[in-house]
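[Structure tokenization] protein backbone as discrete codes
[Encoding] learned vocabulary of local backbone shapes
[Protein] chain in single-letter code, fold in tokens
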Amino acid sequence: MSRYIGPSCRLCRREGMKLMLKGTRCETAKCSVEKRERSMAPGMHGWRRGRRSDYGVRLREKQKVKRYYGLMEKQFMIYFRQAERRTGNTGEILLELLERRLDNVIYKLNFAPSRKAARQLVTHGHIYLNGRRVDIPDITLKIGDTITLKNSDKSRKIVKEQLESNPNFAVQGWLQLDTAKPVATIVGMPTRDDVQLAVEEQLVVEFCSK
């Protein structure tokens, strides 16, 4: 499976906003988007930002979503086609499907500092879903699914250190977390308000529908 292995901060600078690709580091002064000299787009011509065309505006919205969730183009289009086949607002359904990815849920539970770290946690076998070990980070979760950790000191230590490093982290209402064990359960479906990304999903739909 292909994946992006370049510098994460380059993606944030290209979109002109924080995509939280490095977790809590993005909230510090070390974030390249915060630095005045690096707030422009990457590359030697990054300062030449002219007026975007309608196509360019829609492309950037799509790229935001893709990079925020750590997807490649083919993966993203699979989710879009799934959302397109369902009844309702295609843009909101697309975001709901992406929010229910296992790696995103692990991040939203504060088990990992970023989605990239959450994917690594899953692929290394630290996560159990409904009592069975899983190593596929793009599994779509549903109501009633239970997430637990591998019964090992290493797995518990990794998650415990992350939970303690960010004690004020607020778990969203569609997730239920018992930090003592720790065990998490999906108790609802994510809504548009649960998506912590400033994006106009209708423009994404218009771009992908062509």
The chain has eight helices and five strands. Residues 54-68 form the longest helix (15 residues). The CA atoms of residues 128 and 148 lie 5 Å apart. The two ends are 26 Å apart (CA to CA).
